[in-house]
Amino acid sequence: MSDIVIIEGLKIDAVIGIYDWEKEVRQPLLFDLEMAWDNRAPAQTDDIRLALDYEAVSNELTALVKRKPYELIERVAEESAAMIMQTFNVKWLRLRVNKPTALKNAHTVAVQIERGKRG
Predict the structure, then answer these.
(1) Which of 16, 87, 96, 118 suits 38 as a labelling partner, its CA being 20 to 30 A distant?
(2) What is the per-residue pLDDT across 74-87, written as a single tens digit (0 to 9) for each?
(3) Domain extents for the chain?
């Protein structure tokens, strides 16, 4: 199976960073996700219950990231991947967390991870 559900550029404002000033403000993180999902059954039936509900993924991810402060985007990536895989029964994902405010002279700084087996 090579079906993938994609969420690109999901913006979540988070308390993120190692500096004192970063612990007092919210900064935007941008998430790009690719998640393996067999789309044949939902395509044949039009049944949302058989699809990977990208709105539910987005809502759960937003709740997770806003729940507590983080220091490193690496931790955000790991906890986000684990939650998505467990909550939504996703067997493989590639997740990128972008922190566009990290470096003044760069468009963004990002961490990308891949977890599970693509199948």
Answers:
(1) 96
(2) 999 999 999 999 99
(3) 4-116
CA distance 13 to 40: 34
Give Cα separations from 81 to 15, 19, 25, 45, 87 (angstroms). 18, 25, 24, 28, 10
- Dig out the tokens for 41 from the structure: 């059954």
- Say how far apart CA 88 and CA 68 lie, in whole Å: 21
Q: Is 99 a catalytic residue?
A: yes
Structure tokens at 99: 């922190």
Choose, from 11, 23, 91, 99, the residue flagged as catalytic. 99
pTM of the complete model beyond 0.90: yes
CATH class of the region 4-116: alpha beta
Average pLDDT over residues 30-37: 98
Distance between CA atoms of residues 76 and 82, nearest Å:
10
Contact yes or no for 61/84 (Cβ under 8 A): yes
